[in-house]
Design a protein that fits this description.
2 copies of one chain form a homodimer. Chain A has 9 helices and no strands. The longest helix of chain A is centred in the middle third of the chain and has 24 residues, at about 95-120. Chain A has about 170 residues and is mainly α. The first copy, chain A, is elongated. The N and C termini of chain A lie far apart (about 45 Å). The mean pLDDT of chain A is about 95. In chain A, helix 4 runs parallel beside helix 7 and helix 7 (about 95-120) crosses helix 8. Chain A folds into 2 domains: about 1-35, Arc Repressor Mutant, subunit A (Orthogonal Bundle), CATH 1.10.10; about 40-170, Tetracycline Repressor, domain 2 (Orthogonal Bundle). The interface of A and B includes residues 107, 125 and 161 of A. Chain A binds a DNA duplex (30 and 30 nucleotides) through helix 3.
Chain lengths: ~170, ~170
Amino acid sequence: MALYAEHGFEATTVADIAERAGLTKRTFFRHFADKREVLFDGSKDLEEHFVAAVLAAPEAAAPLDAVAAGLDATAEWFTGRREYAARRQRIVAETPELQERELIKMASLAGAVTGALRTRGVADPAAGLAAEAGVAVFRIGFGRWVADGNTAPMDHVLRDALAELRAVTAG
Amino acid sequence: MALYAEHGFEATTVADIAERAGLTKRTFFRHFADKREVLFDGSKDLEEHFVAAVLAAPEAAAPLDAVAAGLDATAEWFTGRREYAARRQRIVAETPELQERELIKMASLAGAVTGALRTRGVADPAAGLAAEAGVAVFRIGFGRWVADGNTAPMDHVLRDALAELRAVTAG
DNA sequence: CCTCCTGATGACACTCAGTGACATGCCTGC
DNA sequence: GCAGGCATGTCACTGAGTGTCATCAGGAGG
């Protein structure tokens, strides 16, 4: 990530990274499927936490309340990682290739959350829509959380964003 | 697209495409930024129609109603293209690389719609959330529209999905 | 009719991501 | 100590994507 931050993602070759790490290009590709994946190491873990929290929500909770529980779990997951997340975000934000990868991770998250909601007995397409909406809240909230000047903790930011979503879709 | 459908996206080289088209690889890349972009030729046009409809919605319309107008416009745009859209969708669905590209086009659409809503005087983050939710409705509705067995027209499918979203976020 | 200019294409060489195949060395369990 | 696995290195290769220069067709103007 140091190299990506210094020279930009595109200008950094896999050979550069491998050399910095004291490895071979070939070995790099044994650890990461491709050059982008380096920056998405934690996404599987995050997804699992989100899903677990959705599944663990009270049985009586409405779909979007279960999603809210998942959002709380992501906020907890990111505790103490704000600076790292912000630096990483800056790199992703300036590289379309990385944005694509970020988006497919978000889509994977949405798919996993959809599955969790179905497990809770939520029907289609409500499950998918609640999950997509929840991930939209996450994405927008995350952006505000890592933005310069923000001091609010992530759970507050996410709760605000969710309330905003409820308001805008009301009626 | 014939080649993609026949041999799969990954197994089709740009040289293959160029040969079929009676061109050179180099010329191919003068028309398309990359191998994926071939399948996303119309996305800019779709985006413009969506945005125009959002902007043209009655001034009194609520944010999500303006988005609904945009969704109607996309339904109209797809009129007569269902078979093409379905074939294309099949190719995209089986190729992660293409899904990534699809997602960034959706994100671009969401961004454009967000801008349109802001122009209408919708504040942040409501504009972004309404746009993201609207695009989620589009994506899920589109999937149902091109699915085997569906006979309902696209505007109906989209309206249903939007109603579903409203129901699931209510309260 | 000739010329000049422009825009599209071809030809060619190059970088770099990513993969397959095989060799090597290290560590572990027997 | 040894056999068998596992991580790494080496090498060669394919294919995407780019930069550069040459070629060619067509239109504007003399």
